């Protein structure tokens, strides 16, 4: 079992509690396979999982399939063990902010800093980690990238030293097949997202750290996406409310998180994700539309809660997704075009990635 003690998982199976106080788990307990409700820990099965054909590592299996989140498998029967709750929202915004603050601060402050580094982009999510944990800060990006500039300014405001992982075309070309091998994914979006994570983790491991703290999950839990802000007008979501759209993007985590976890482990570090702790998830599920998005301010409740730890300039700062803020996506596209894969071609970046494998 990875991610949590067996007794906690056993009790969660007995009680049906989907959020028993962990940051995720997956593996075998009492002869059955389980994976937590948000899929925070990867688990893969082969053709005969009842007889040991399963693993946390893709490379151990000949035909791996991602085990579904919130499920239990034993004696050939796959059944649902947990679903995310749908609690009533907080009565008022001040109460919501106080609960968010308590959950976030408790989860971050519980992180052990031995062997720890922090992936730091200068946004509110990673800055909450930087403000409360004594660990070195790393940012990855091309020299002119938004993330490097934002991380430098935020590190100055926090009076912290920043280590910059400067991305290069050579590093991207080398990392692409390594990411594909680690994650089992070769589509353009997955590789673009994984590139800055992988190259940051690689540098962190080379510097002697074996754990990397990230602000993962905050965008999904607290309303950080434009498609959530613009619900129901945005065609990328089906929900007719902001809260419904939040739930839609939370539901994508079980498929997305294994990519990041496997990329980081492939680079030699273990991810640490305090903003994905069950106590934070429980609070986030109780936010209503205006607590998630206030006007044009996404992640409103989280930003308000962060003001207890961060300067307002950081707490209220907008940030681009890592693949764009680091310019990894732009430069991967540039490399594809330089190699002859033009934008008029179908999935030109994906074709270029295949050529590197």
UniProtKB/TrEMBL annotation:
Alphabetical list of PANTHER family matching this protein: ASPARAGINE SYNTHETASE, ASPARAGINE SYNTHETASE [GLUTAMINE-HYDROLYZING]
SUPFAM superfamilies from the UniProt entry: Adenine nucleotide alpha hydrolases-like
Molecular functions per Gene Ontology: asparagine synthase (glutamine-hydrolyzing) activity; ATP binding
Any single Pfam family the record assigns to this protein: Asn_synthase
UniProt entry keywords in alphabetical sequence: ATP-binding, Nucleotide-binding
Ranges of residues in domain Asparagine synthetase: 100-232, 238-339
GO cellular component: cytosol
Provenance organism: Haloarcula salinisoli
Example of a GO biological process term: asparagine biosynthetic process
Protein name: Asparagine synthetase B
């Amino acid at each position: 079992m990875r991610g949590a003690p067996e007794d906690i998982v056993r009790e969660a199976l007995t009680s049906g509690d989907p959020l028993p106080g962990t940051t995720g788990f997956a593996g075998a307990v009492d002869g059955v396979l389980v994976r937590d409700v948000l899929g925070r820990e990867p688990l893969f099965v082969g053709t005969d999982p009842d007889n040991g054909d399963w693993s946390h590592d893709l490379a151990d299996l000949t035909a791996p399939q991602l085990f579904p989140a919130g499920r239990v498998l034993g004696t050939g029967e796959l059944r649902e063990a947990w679903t995310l709750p749908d609690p009533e929202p907080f009565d008022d915004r001040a109460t919501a902010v106080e609960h968010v603050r308590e959950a976030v601060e408790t989860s971050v402050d519980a992180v052990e800093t031995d062997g720890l580094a922090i992936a730091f982009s200068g946004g509110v999510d990673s800055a909450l980690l930087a403000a409360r944990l004594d660990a070195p800060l790393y940012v990855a990006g091309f020299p002119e990238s938004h993330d490097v500039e934002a991380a430098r300014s935020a590190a100055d405001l926090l009076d912290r030293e920043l280590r910059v992982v400067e991305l290069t075309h050579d590093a991207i070309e080398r990392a692409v097949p390594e990411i594909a091998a680690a994650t089992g994914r070769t589509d353009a979006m997955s590789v673009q997202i994984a590139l800055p994570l992988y190259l940051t983790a690689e540098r962190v491991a080379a510097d002697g750290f074996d754990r990397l703290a990230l602000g993962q999950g905050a965008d999904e839990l607290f309303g950080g996406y434009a498609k959530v802000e613009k619900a129901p007008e945005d065609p990328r979501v089906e929900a007719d409310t902001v809260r419904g759209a939040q739930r839609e993007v939370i539901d994508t985590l079980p498929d997305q998180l294994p990519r990041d976890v496997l990329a980081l482990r492939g680079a030699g570090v273990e991810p640490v994700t305090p903003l994905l702790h069950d106590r934070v998830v429980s609070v986030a599920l109780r936010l209503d539309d205006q607590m998630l998005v206030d006007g044009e301010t996404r992640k409103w409740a989280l930003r308000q809660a962060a003001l207890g730890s961060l300067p307002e300039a950081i707490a209220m700062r907008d940030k681009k997704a890592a693949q764009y803020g680091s310019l990894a996506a732009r430069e991967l596209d540039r490399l594809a075009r330089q190699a002859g894969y033009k934008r008029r071609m179908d999935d030109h970046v994906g074709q270029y990635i295949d050529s590197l494998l």
